């Protein structure tokens, strides 16, 4: 088996994002949430994710905005974020290997942790 290459360009990001979100769509825990929220707007979401990861990994200003607000009201908890990270890591590890690959996995894990923490925080405020 040939050695896996690192993420190195926009085409790699598109491959990473498309493969990952294909697994999310099919997942019994995450699929219903994403499919309900996006309702046919997957192409727009994927385009946004290409820009997001291009900005994070290549320091190219291809994404603007705040990624948290669209996730704030989703019916998710730590279980969902753990599954999201597991699917992300499984997907990316099957395709790539290297410094930027590890950076992407670290950034994804940090985002999942932060989003989960912020959602819990806001829910706590609402329940006071």
Automatic annotation (TrEMBL):
SUPFAM superfamilies associated with the record: Globin-like
CDD domains given in the database record: TrHb3_P (cd08916)
InterPro entries recorded: Globin-like_sf, Globin/Proto, Hemoglobin_trunc
Keywords per UniProt: Heme, Iron, Metal-binding, Transport
Pfam families (alphabetical): Bac_globin (PF01152)
Keyword Metal-binding: yes
Coiled-coil segments: none
Keyword Transport: yes
Domain of life (superkingdom): Bacteria
Record's protein name: Group III truncated hemoglobin
């Amino acid at each position: 088996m040939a050695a896996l290459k690192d993420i190195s360009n926009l085409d790699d990001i598109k491959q990473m994002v498309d493969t990952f979100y294909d697994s999310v769509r099919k997942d019994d825990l995450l699929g219903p949430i994403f499919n309900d929220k996006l309702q046919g707007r997957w192409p727009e979401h994927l385009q946004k994710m290409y820009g997001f990861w291009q900005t994070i990994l290549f320091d190219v200003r291809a994404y603007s905005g705040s990624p948290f607000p669209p996730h704030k009201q989703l019916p998710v908890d730590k279980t969902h974020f753990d599954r999201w990270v597991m699917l992300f890591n499984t997907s990316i590890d099957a395709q790539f290997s290297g410094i930027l690959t590890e950076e992407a996995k670290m950034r994804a894990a940090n985002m999942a942790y932060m989003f989960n923490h912020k959602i819990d925080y806001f829910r706590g405020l609402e329940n006071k």
